[in-house]
Design brief:
about 90 residues, two-stranded antiparallel ribbon, 3 helices, about 35% helix, about 10% strand, Transposase
Length: about 90
């Protein structure tokens, strides 16, 4: 038994052999398109988040003389803090 002949594939091969073919990679992307961005993995995003949260530390000084280093989440970075010893607003 013989296989069926793929006439369109044979015609494509003959045409590319006669006329040549262009490599689209040589021309770059058409119309100024940008290549798709690679999506970061969840693990790397979690690591970046942990690093960003760990970097926000403030040294809190109170009028009473109490001083502490406090790690704050980014949402609380600009807020006023109260002293745990005397209850006053810290600097």
């Amino acid at each position: 038994m013989t296989k069926r002949m793929n006439w369109s594939g044979a015609a494509d091969r003959d045409r590319s052999a006669r006329q040549g073919s262009d490599n689209l990679a040589d021309y770059g992307l058409p119309g100024g398109l940008t290549p798709p961005k690679l999506r970061q993995s969840k693990a790397s995003l979690r690591e970046e988040l942990a690093e960003a949260q760990a970097k926000i530390t403030r040294i809190v000084r109170c009028v009473c003389g109490h001083k502490a280093s406090v790690a704050l989440p980014p949402a609380l970075a600009g807020r006023r803090l109260w002293c745990s010893k005397c209850g006053r607003v810290t600097e």
